[in-house]
Amino acid sequence: MKTPQEYIANKYPIIPCYRNQRRPIGDDWENKPTGQLDRFSPGDNIGIHLIDLIDIDVDNIVCHKFLKKIKTLGCSVYGRSSNPESHLLFKGEKLEYKKYLMHKSLELWFKDHRKKATILEIRSGKGLQSIGPGSLVDDEEVRWDRNIEPTEYPGDLRKDIDLVVFATMISIIYPGKGQRDDFCYAIACLLKKWGNWTEEKINTFILEVAEASEPLEDRDRDDRRNNFGTRAYKGNTAKGLPTLIDQMSLPGEGVKDIFKVVGITIGQENQEDKEKKITNLKMYDWNDYKNLDIKEPAFIIERLFKTKSINFISGPKGNGKTEWTLGLTDTVSKGGKFLNYTVTDPCPVIYIDGEMDEFDLIERRIPYTQEIAPMPNYFSIIHYAQQIDQTIPDIKFEHGQKLIQDKVNEIREKTGKSPVLVLDNLRSLSNYKENDSDDWRPIGVWLKNLRALDCTTIVIDHHGKGENAGPRGSSSKTDWANVSIFIKKVEKGRAKGTMRMEIKFDKARGLRPDETESYECEYNFQGLWTMQQSQTAQSEETLLGIIYDIKRTDRSKINKEHAQIDKDLEKGTITKKIHTKLYKAINREHNTTQLEIADKVGVSVGKLNQLINGSFESYFSKRSNEEYLKSKEAYGEIIDEKSIVEFNELVKRWAAEREHQYPTGSKYTYQEKYPNGNKMPTEMWLRDNATEIAPIRFKALGLAWADYYKVEHVFRGIDE
Of 128, 264, 392, 528, which cross-links 259 as Cys (Cβ 3.0–4.6 Å)? Predict the structure, then answer.
């Protein structure tokens, strides 16, 4: 595959680039259609637009030693003669761009490599492209090393690339003879102490690095390099950073920077060591516990957020998360009303912004402030652009956490009140791995520590996959939360010049069901928020109808399969024990859960329970009776009122007989004669005891019986 025609035939998103260059032809190229042959001229380079593609661009030759496993996992591979196999192309959704660089203090070690400090780049997304085979770059032909259709990486690509880069960097600074044992042991001790790596993982890693870094003739024949993890866990004398700095003249900051690639901060106590300091768990009997003077948290915002709570606000980009939060917290800082929420006792707000443009925040706040903010001025801002290097230290690490916590304490001392802390947004304030619950844990623990200090936090986060998904990444995030709110933009019914949004509750610990119903609101960008009639709101009657249909469908499926296994029992093809187990299994399989019903109906679980425990029973009886009457009318003259009365009397007599014979009232009381176990006779029993009833009238008998016990009629005709 070397020509635009071949790329297009294989459905590659290609664009034309200047001959012998990496630069795309034309302005606004990223927004123009891809895969169009008429855009190409003879001699144009072929740019692969990285839409739904991920390009691992390898710049350092050492890196190839550690990429072997990744290269075997569904990627196409290409490069140039001066740097073969330097591009690994996977299919997949956009992966955040990242360029891995060696720390400048290590220049002595990497200066002889092709691209000096650069190890590799992860490139993906609409604004990026890669020059594909069939092109020229610096007068070198780009050619395929392996031409296959790219597939998605079967794992966490970011995490595995981090490990490859880490191994590459360690290999670059790997020492010569005489220092290798001390070097490997020091690296192993650092991985154990600060990274909490397992013994086996350290052993495997050190051996892989040693085999890739040592000349073949120098490698130890007794495999001493495979046990440094074991030595780190069992040895009495640990080595570490001082060994690398003092004995090997490695710069400390450079070494620390290498370890940060895999999320290890040397000098930060790991969680396991912290927890080992706890030597006793406090335990109380109930009488002592209830007398501990534990006070119920008050509401900072009435019927929404409590003091000492952790709260999440998530939703797609540009759907109003920040606007809604700014409106809400402005009211927190002043007191008053925001939509249907009331703040009676104003308290300080610390708003930490890691993403917005500087002036954008001013524009969004101005409508609430008029010209001069009220005194005391309870609204404080920490903006990334005003900090050293225009960044806020990562809140995953203790240093970043402490800096923020110091400001919380400062505000508390200044005002005498615990502040509300807003983190906008989580992704911009931490480089944690979103789908790794272990990587999220330090942030979650910190939020709990803030709660213990009487601080209320509001975390703004991007939403996950799916229209109504909660916060993106690990589901363990909201395990820590009191309230989780999902905000989605609504276009229907929106007034001109306004923003309309739907507010839904994903989690609401401590709130009543009626306080967690979804609603819509509208913002005019002049500081005015109003409640709106939901465009998707449905009457209670409609909601009950949906619930009824779901439950009826479930029951129909259950009854159908129950009927089949009843026949099997009557025929003797299954035992009673198997019959019972099958009954339970069928019930589990076809009973839609409360959460699933709530999602289908479009209400919260709290609202669903409110409907089921309130109006549903009377609605069920009403619908069942209506359907019974419709069925009765369908038989016209054949099923008259007299027959219905007779059948009802017959049912009452049979029921009384059974109650007399089997008085315990247990669900399975009538298992012998009525093996379906629902207090209704089987079709077989009815046929045996009502042979004088005409086949078409048998239906009416079944309906009468179903009406008596308020269950769904499932009998087919006696002629079957």
Answer: 264
The answer to whether residue 258 is domain-embedded is no
H or E, element range at 529: strand 529-532
Q: Which amino acid, residue 221?
A: R
Cα distance between residue 646 and residue 358, in whole Å = 82
> What is the pLDDT at residue 447?
93
Main-chain phi, psi angles of 708, to 5 degrees: -60, -45
Cα torsion angle, 666, 670, 675, 679, sign: negative
In a domain, 294, yes or no: no
Give the per-residue pLDDT at 258. 94
For residues 597 and 486, membership in a common domain is answered with: no
Cβ atoms of residues 110 and 42 within 8 Å: no
Report residue 80 as tokens.
């140039």
* Whether residues 544 and 526 fall in one domain: no
Cα four-point dihedral sign 267, 271, 272, 274: positive
Do residues 608 and 547 touch, judged by C-beta distance below 8 A?
Answer: yes
Give the type of residue at 429: L
* Same domain membership, residue 640 and residue 588: no
| Closest C-alpha to 343, from 416, 410, 417, 411 | 417
Boundary (domain end) residue, out of 130, 157, 184: 157
Q: In this predicted structure, what is the pLDDT of residue 708?
A: 53
For 169-218, give the secondary structure using H, E and C.
Answer: HHHHCCCCCCCHHHHHHHHHHHHHHHHCCCHHHHHHHHHHHHHHHCCHHH
Domain boundary among 567, 588, 614: 614
Identify whether residues 462 and 553 lie together within a single domain: no
Q: Are residues 351 and 439 in the same domain?
A: yes
- List, for residues 428-469, the tens digit of each pLDDT value: 999 888 777 778 888 998 999 999 888 999 999 987 555 555
pLDDT attached to residue 715: 45
Task: Pick the closest to residue 58 from 137, 130, 159, 154 (CA basis).
Answer: 130
The domain spanning residue 433 has which CATH number? 3.40.50.300
Q: Same domain, yes or no, for 454 and 377?
A: yes
Q: Is the bond preceding residue 425 a cis peptide, omega within 30 degrees?
A: yes
Bridge partners, 502 (sequence order): 488, 520
Could you tell me which residues come within 8 angstroms of residue 473 by beta carbon, excluding any fewer than 6 positions away? 433, 434, 435, 440, 464
Strand partners, 424: 353, 460
Q: How far apart are CA 587 and CA 564, in angstroms?
A: 14
Q: Is 285 part of any domain?
A: no
**pLDDT for res 163:** 96
Its pTM stands at 0.46
Give the per-residue pLDDT at 480.
Answer: 79
Instruction: Verify that 552 and 579 share a domain, yes or no.
Output: yes
> Which portions of the chain are predicted below pLDDT 70?
112-115, 219-225, 268-278, 370-376, 464-476, 533-539, 625, 628-720
β-strands 456-462, 420-424 pairing: parallel
Q: For residues 497 and 107, what is the distance between their CA atoms, to the nearest angstrom?
A: 55
Cα–Cα distances in angstroms (integers) from residue 448 to residues 445, 455, 480, in the given order: 5, 9, 8
Q: Which domain holds residue 607?
A: 538-614
Element (H, E) at 651: helix 641-661
399 alpha carbon, distance to own chain's centre:
27
Distance CA 160, CA 182 (A): 27
Instruction: Give the HSE-up count for residue 618: Cα atoms under 13 Å, Cβ half-sphere.
Output: 6
| 231 occurs within a structural domain | yes
**24 contacts 54 by C-beta, under 8 angstroms:** no
Please, are residues 711 and 640 in contact by the beta-carbon 8 Å criterion? no
At residue 3, the pLDDT reads: 95
Domain total for the chain? Answer: 5
For 109, the enclosing helix (H) or strand (E) is: helix 107-110
Query: Does residue 357 sit in the same domain as residue 466?
Result: yes
Instruction: Give the tens place of pLDDT for each residue, 364-403.
Output: 988 888 645 555 578 999 999 888 878 898 898 888 899 9
Q: How far apart are CA 428 and CA 356, in angstroms?
A: 10
Helix or strand (DSSP H, E) at 496: none
Residue spans of alpha helices (H) in 335-371: 358-369
